[in-house]
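<discrete_fold_record>
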Amino acid sequence: MSYPRYRRGVFAVIDGQSRPVSYTVGENYVYPPSGDRTEPIPVDMCERVVSIQVYATYRGHGVLVDDMDENGNALVMEAEWDHEWATANGFLHENKYEYFKTVEVTELRDYYEKQLDLLFLRWRSAHFSRPLEGLPLTGGWANGSPQIIDGRPRSGVLETEDGRTVEVTTRAEYFGHPCEIAGISADGSVGLYYLGDDHDRAAADGFEPGEDARWARTVHIYDLARYQEHHADLDFEKWRSTREPANGT
């Protein structure tokens, strides 16, 4: 048996329920799967519309979980661009940059969903103006007054629409840097923590180490790209541990 809550693709949250849909960024409607009799649904009725990919670690290495079958197997793709590791660990080179392997789902660890927010641009333009030259950023995230604006950003442990327990961090890219969003102020100031390893490059782009040793800086929300939520699935490990044979059996 595979993990029953595995999913991938585009999903919309409507009336507190998550359902698969198709959607193109910028359109005004989401579309239920072909064959459903439901009419197209206005985006304004959707709490969220996200594109979901699933990641995990396999033998301590990051992988994309591309598919699962009913027999408890997962098709995974090496996700750290380490082709030597992939070859040494039995992955097959299927095209120019991608290496795949079928593994048992119970061999996976650190299971999480990456949920790319497809309504981010719509939300941003509805709540924030573009930055004015010379106007300083407030950095409310640092002085104790970050705000939740129409449901964004989210962080902490919460229960999702389909009943799973997840630990959420909100993330985005800033000039190609992977970052965690510490908070957003009403004027569009965003506090970022740098998540990469190249501190020289981070310093060149304005990040500075704080007292907690995390590299941070304040930017404007119009400087962000690929706004997403990282959902670490706290139920997966419980499920996996019940599927592993007991020691000595």
User: Anything to note?
Assistant: Residues 120-127 form the longest helix (8 residues). Residues 130-233 form one domain.
